[in-house]
Amino acid sequence: MTTPIWDFLESCRREGRARFHMPGHKGRGPLGCEQWDLTEIPGADSLYEAAGIIAESEGHAAALFGSAATFYSTEGSSQCVKAMLHLALQCRPAGTPPVILAARNVHKSFVHAAALLDFEPAWLWPEEESASLCACPVTAEGLDRALSALPAPPAAVYVTSPDYLGNFQDVPALAGICRRHGTLLLADNAHGAYLRFLSPSLHPVDQGADLVCDSAHKTLPVLTGGAYLHVSKAAPAALRERARAALALFGSTSPSYLTLASLDLCNAWLAGEGPARIRAAAGGLAEVKRELSARGWAFAGEEPLKLTFDAAASGWAGSALADLLRAGGAEPEYADRDHVVLMASGATDEAALRTAAAAPGPAAPGPARSRPAPPPARGERALSVREALFAPQETVPAEESLGRICGAPTVSCPPAVPIAVTGERIGPEALALFRYYGVKTVDVLKD
User: Fold this and answer.
1) CB neighbours of 337 closer than 8 A, spacing ≥ 6?
2) How far apart are CA 220 and CA 130, in angstroms?
3) What is the DSSP secondary-structure string of 294-358?
């Protein structure tokens, strides 16, 4: 597979012309990568008006992912989340209200989009006990009931799959319900770009979602910030036609050509050794999981390239287990009081897998640690997301926030899942979750 973006950057480097254009480093600097970092000179194409090398490279990505069209982002899937929601609202049928029905474990970029686009989310809550803020299992039956209860179909249904702990939604079943109700299905697949290259594919584009965002940099050999917005072949043509303009609305006019080059080179990797490397890593991680399970460790989630320790079920605090793993040479992706997440990829070699297997040793004997699992915070809506996010705010100790209106979502990243959503009145449930997850301060509206 050709790599038109990289080939152009490399040809500019070899030609060695004096650079009287941006960036200011002029192709020289201490990092060593400056020589490939360009701006939109002739031949370089332009991300949001792509008709040359970028459009060609995106076409290769679309073929690899089996989409009707795939568009690049250099500002992560946060940019793609906002673009997906804008597209769903802009292309909704006449008479469809500006409502997005969303599973409650959204990334905070969803909340920012609600403020910028001035829509109100309607929430899908967990249908079974959830052991984490990160998870929000939704069944087809539950979605059907929620859609039937609305006065009109929403502009879209929005789910996160897989979530930060590696749990999947039943995307094929949810997609069928959405089709029956005449609405779109949007999937935040930030953690699952690699799923397309398993056998069989587990990617939401192949499972019926209309719009899907992937953080390429999370699980593929792509520089930080590289992401995809996919439009499925079954989606309305208007989504494909307006996608680039939607991304431009939320993106810088100076996208990183280094990140674009890494997306371009990833196409060649995915067309070559990449899928075999991904499947080998998934198989290796499954073996590590079996080995650790035999030593008494408990796990959550089913994502093939994610090893999620259920620390609480093993009698550990997540932070202590994370420290144990670090001492053994394995740096986790994420840890909270109940879970520790290790993420692998096609670049994870056998030595790294052996480190993950050896690092924790045997699980400590004894019963599972008590876990109160506070319920989700179903806050009362006091103001719209837009009104609240742009209102004057102050930061207060979390313990003093009861009854106040939530301002900007105050969450750690990862996982960046808001406990209380902007514009909601903070109630006892949110206060309990603040304590549970160690949130010390909260942004609230000034009285």
Assistant:
1) 311, 312, 317, 318, 319, 436, 437, 438
2) 29
3) HTT--EE---TTEEEEETGGGT--HHHHHHHHHHTT---SEE-SSEEEEE--TT--HHHHHHHHH
38 in Cβ contact with 179 (< 8 Å): no
Q: Decide if 66 contacts 206 (C-beta within 8 A).
A: yes
Distance, in Å, from the CA atom of 371 to the CA atom of 21, rounded to the nearest integer, reads 58
Classify the phi-psi angles of 414: left when phi > 0, otherwise alpha if psi is within -120 to 50, otherwise beta: beta
pLDDT 10s digit of each residue in the chain, 447 long?
999 999 999 999 999 999 999 999 999 999 999 999 999 999 999 999 999 999 999 999 999 999 999 999 999 999 999 999 999 999 998 888 999 999 999 999 999 999 999 998 999 998 876 668 889 999 999 999 999 999 999 999 999 999 999 999 999 999 999 999 999 999 999 999 999 999 999 999 999 999 999 999 999 999 999 999 999 999 999 999 999 999 999 999 999 999 999 999 999 999 999 999 999 999 999 999 999 999 999 999 999 999 999 998 888 989 999 999 999 999 999 999 899 999 999 999 999 999 999 999 887 655 566 565 577 889 899 999 999 999 999 999 999 999 999 999 877 667 889 999 999 999 999 999 999 888 999 999 998
* Eight-class DSSP state of 223: -
**Are 311 and 317 a contacting pair, CB within 8 Å?**
yes
Those residues whose C-beta lies under 8 Å from the C-beta of residue 24, and which sit 6 or more positions away, are: none
Work out the end-to-end distance of the chain between its first and last CA atoms, rounded to an integer number of angstroms.
Answer: 59
Strands 184-188 and 393-397: unpaired
HSE-CB at 207 with a 13 A cutoff on CA atoms is 24
Distance in angstroms (rounded) separating the CA atoms of residues 81 and 18: 39
